[in-house]
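Quick check before the chapter quiz. The format below is the same one you will see on the exam, so make sure you can read both the input and the output lines.
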Amino acid sequence: MSTTRALPAPRLRISRRLWRGLTRELHTRGNAVRESGAFLLASRLAPERISAFVMYDDLDATCLTGGISFSGAGYTELWRRCREHNFKVVADVHTHPSSWVHQSDIDRRHPMIPEAGHVAVVVPQYAYRARLDDCGVYVYQGGGSWMGADRSAELRALRLTSMPAWPRLAHLFRRPIARVDP
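Here is the expected output.
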């Protein structure tokens, strides 16, 4: 009998300022009545540091249907932007209406990026005043399996940090959807 070992949670970092901008945008896009989401991006040179995000509905204008119904055309645009600006997708984030931050059956069966090691974050209350500690964080293991990321400081998959100044990258996208610490 063989045993498989769970993939360790990656150690991603996001600045407080970028987190606040992201959750503000999630709350606004969902209008406090529907789920919204975004892909979290990092430079290929610093893949542990989340430096930008792109909202689902900027890639697929019709995807916010109450839940999220993201199309293949949205992925085409996502990959184009990542290629053009040397980003990679390191995580995705979406909101739930209540304080329940577990993955739904749909979340578990349909990862936004079905690659082992990808991180998915569930934000409660449509991201109204969302704190990272209140979110559910999950690491895709491949083959339809997920692992909840440990909340301990040493093993946390996603941490808020104070980061050094970064140039603004919002101009890389049509609308100011990508944000980076100034």
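If your answer matched, good. The first strand starts at residue 12 and ends at 15.
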